[in-house]
Amino acid sequence: MSTVAAVANPFLSKVNAALRRGRPPTPETLNYTVWSGPGEEHLYAAVWFRTRGCRFDYRGQCTMCDYWVSTPTSADQMVQSCREALATLTSVPATLVVSPSGSMFDEWEVPAEARRGIFALVREFGCTHFVCETRPEVVDELLLREYTQILDNKVLSIEMGLESATPWVLRNCINKAMLMSEFTRAVQIASAHDIKTLANVQLGAAFLSTEEAISDTVSTVRWALAQGVSNCIVFPAHVKPWTLLHWLWQHDLYSSPSLWSLVEVLQRLGPDTCRQVFISWYRPQYGVRHDQHGKKSSQYPSTCLRCRDRVIGLLDRYRDYEDYAAVESLIGMECSCKEEWRATIEAAQEQPLDRRVASFYDILGNAILGSPRWQRERERVLQEL
Question: Given Cys at both, which of 177, 326, 357, 377 links 318, Cβ 3.0 to 4.6 Å?
């Protein structure tokens, strides 16, 4: 594991921690979830298994995440949860994703014994392509060597959350403590072991205007591909309970990005770059088991009801068949909601981003931390912006 560390935004970490206080833990009966569906002309399945949770979530990081938190879970329980989850699949997917709430390679969350046991299960499973998710900070030579040795009968990938390649946005809007050099280092180590890398890129970070969000997503995709990642996955933000985005949404200070923003990202990237760009979370994502335990998104990316089904259908076509002609059809579509969205792109901002974020911080500090505490900390926090 790398010893290099980035520092999160202390103010946002305090706000996130306050908002997550009282968040219910993972129910004892919920040890895994399974999602499956089409993708790239073959079946794809994703398994989440129960752990204690993501270490960075406990520290108040990531303004959009609602990761499960739990009481300690043993290595044997983790392996058994994955065994049971795989047994529920009625057909063998070509691509299988198995991941905890945070990082498969973070031994604070997934002990080595559990990781090796899960990889052994996957080795005997019939998929051809296997993916697990991890933070880049915990990627190292020994872990990836083990990954390839146990799973030498699979095409392997690691999926890493990048979100934004703009350090200021990453720290002050997303609150993710990560150095760009750490991401690049992880990509290089994976490449040396013939492991594909997938970079998760967020569309719709807190506090950004429509144009800023689109521009940041486009520049992040281009930066990640320049570092050598195999593919980028663009995730339009959902509003999920127990997150800062949810609090902002409740107070009419945030909305999930329009699906037209996702189309605009794909248009600006163009057909050549989009050969390496997947899309996800552009439709309601959670299933019945999630809904039963309070995990349903309060708001998700959409358009108006008149055009929504057609827009979703064309995005499905792009995702499932890597068909950029579907994007071109979306570019040519017209609807009154698209005109309204276009107006938000063209709207001039009264203040530069740092001043607007300072105004948001004033609202959050007073409302969530309380006015006396915020007044003591305000000058220092705003100076750091």
Answer: 326
